[in-house]
Design a protein that fits this description.
By secondary structure, the protein is of the alpha/beta class. The protein contains 17 helices and 6 strands. 59% of the residues lie in helices and 7% in strands. The chain is elongated, with a radius of gyration of 25 Å. The termini are far apart. Bound molecules: NADPH dihydro-nicotinamide-adenine-dinucleotide phosphate.
Amino acid sequence: MSEQAVQIAYLVAGVLFVLALRWLSSPPTARRGVAAGEIGFLVAVVATLLRSEVVTYEWILIGLFAGSAIGVPLGLLVPMTAMPQRIALSHAFGALAAALVGIAEFYLRTPHLSKVTMTAIGVEVVLGALTFTGSLMAAGKLQEVLPQRPITWRGQNFVNLSILAAALALVGVLVADPSQTALFPVVIVLSLAFGVLLIIPIGGADMPTVISLLNSYAGLSGAAMGFAIDNKILIVAGALDGASGLLLSIIMSRAMNRSFRNVLFGAFGKVQAQAAEGVDGAVQTAEPDEAAELLKMARLVIIVPGYGMAVAQAQYMVRQLSDALGEKGVEVKFAIHPVAGRMPGHMNVLLAEANVGYDQLFDMDQINPEFPRADVAIVVGANDVVNPAAKNTPGSPIYGMPVLNVDQAQTVMVIKRSMAPGFAGIDNELFVNPKTMMIFGDAKAVVGALVEELTRSRASL
Ligand code: NDP
């Protein structure tokens, strides 16, 4: 394939990546966005493979089969609820690949490296190495093979930043004189160590924001790789990845009430999942038949899905509940909190899978003013995202996090299996609010029972 044709293919791929990001930002076009991204990558990979600089396909094929042997089972077998740690692993692999390419380039080309190339290789290896270990640590924390709690000590930020500064200073020395090859392994080791130290002080609850940030680092490492090996599509894809990961981190920090400065310096590990202190008050429980009676009389019902809906795979039942209520003339809206579930867009994906209409889904800012008008708010396996402590209890780990104002509805129905806390590990005073009825049980079973009650009464009419 001529070099000109390769560059045109890269341009097409770049345009597809931009379109993919554009389309992914809205649920109705998200599927198209995924397809555009996939086609873009296919075009970029095929064009690269057909480039004249490919000497032999032997190792490429081995890599292809080895990667597929790991990637396909990961894609098929890992449940949706474990997606954040799976994504962290993908970042780890991507960053490792970028770091290895940088290391290979250094040893192949030194000492004939221009300052620009050495700078690019330095950035690539530092970011790649720290993202590799950082992402492995993040995956380990989320999978709970490592302790979730933040581990902090005095002077931690100083030590961490000194290690990063030392790695960058050595890269500076290498830019000035690439023949100092003995320094390069030190840069690698310092960067690997920084990745571990960066994650140690961060609590499990903040891990999603960190993963998004590591995604950004992996992208920037890829962009630096593009400069190092003069590959334009890597620069484009890496820059898009870096920028979108950064934006997503900022959006998530806001949604979880973490200052982004804290995210960048890893100081937000101080946010400990405080031991549940217990909430005072009587818990009112209800059975599905009682709840169904109330629902039949409602005019507006707002359904708030959370992580428990994902665990129970209750989205199809929830859709049936919405349909059953709709048939009774009840208006049904879904309230989507930006960090409900365990990954950005988790609830949107599940509800789209169950064919809930996009026009029924409302973001937090849109739906919050509607709660006072709602007769019933049904909380399906959500906890932290509806916890009023975020508004009322200074000192709570989630204080300041924007939450869904379900407590403003006339009646709140909470469907979960027990009084157990959610991800942040704190109690929820909503459960003892006099307006609240707890309907204990697995989300799928309870919502199924509600649907049955509602449709049975329809059949008997
Ligand atoms: P939470 O984790 O706060 O609560 C989920 C609740 O679901 C639990 O209290 C649990 O209670 C209940 N549950 C679990 N299994 C079932 C089941 N089978 N049936 C019924 N209920 C069940 O979830 P939220 O969605 O409210 O909040 C998300 C939390 O996760 C936030 O703290 C957020 O910061 C964090 N986070 C968000 C990420 C994101 O990007 N979206 C990523 C990672 C973390 P019980 O055991 O009693 O049933």
